[in-house]
Specification:
This protein is an alpha/beta fold and 172 residues long. 22% of the residues lie in helices and 38% in strands. It has a single domain, classed as Rossmann fold (3-Layer(aba) Sandwich), CATH 3.40.50.2020. It contains three helices and nine strands. Strand 2, helix 2 and strand 3 form a beta-alpha-beta unit. It is globular, with a radius of gyration of 16 Å. Bound molecules: 1-O-pyrophosphono-5-O-phosphono-alpha-D-ribofuranose. 1-O-pyrophosphono-5-O-phosphono-alpha-D-ribofuranose (PRP) binds next to strand 2, strand 3, strand 5 and helix 3.
Length: 172
């Protein structure tokens, strides 16, 4: 495993999730919420969050990637897999692990808008506003963070680290 130091503890994550779930329960009271989990990174976050919700939830999965040249996104997003079924006139919440440049979210907004939902909102566990290239503001944010390379709780480096129970900063 890569050398890392704990940045956001398991307890901090779980406490934030309880608050987020309470907010979602209030905002979507009386409705069924269609959650679109963006693979792979959001899988752990979504698995924990949905078990804190009291509103009815329908779960969908979507896998996208933005090919990179070095550390920077190429700006081209590819859709690899979708389990999304009819979302027309439904309430949809897209959930991501991290919002960085906004290129992926910009693609997802266009992709999901085409399904004609009744409402469309975005939730991210981690928001790195200083990295933004496209002006996108998520509706729900777990933690706003500075420009650290983070792993754990779904986030990886070379596919490792997703199973850490906390979020950590990768050390050289
Ligand atoms: C990460 C993350 C977002 C995207 C955010 O995905 O899950 O989808 O990058 O970056 P952006 O705002 O600059 O577009 P990644 O390609 O690492 O895939 P993964 O979730 O499967 O690890």
């Amino acid at each position: 495993m890569y050398k890392h130091r704990v940045f956001i503890t398991e307890d901090q994550i779980q406490a934030r999730l309880v608050a987020l779930a309470e907010q979602l329960d209030r905002d979507y009271a009386g409705r069924t919420l269609n959650i679109v989990c963006i693979l792979k990174g959001a899988a752990v976050f979504v698995a924990d969050l949905i078990r804190l919700l009291h509103i009815p939830v329908i779960l969908h999965f979507l896998k996208v990637s933005s090919y990179t040249d070095g550390a920077e996104s190429s700006g081209t997003v590819h859709l690899h897999f979708s389990s999304v079924t009819d979302l027309e006139a439904r309430h949809v919440l897209v959930i991501e692990d991290i919002l960085d440049t906004g290129i992926t979210m910009d693609y997802l907004i266009k992709h999901m808008t085409a399904t004609k939902p009744a409402s469309l909102r975005y939730c991210v566990l981690l928001d790195k506003p200083e990295r933004r290239k496209i002006d996108i503001r998520p509706d729900y944010v777990g933690f706003e963070i500075a420009d650290y390379f983070v792993i754990g709780y779904g986030l990886d480096y070379n596919e490792l680290g997703r199973n850490l129970r906390y979020i950590a900063i990768l050390e050289e």
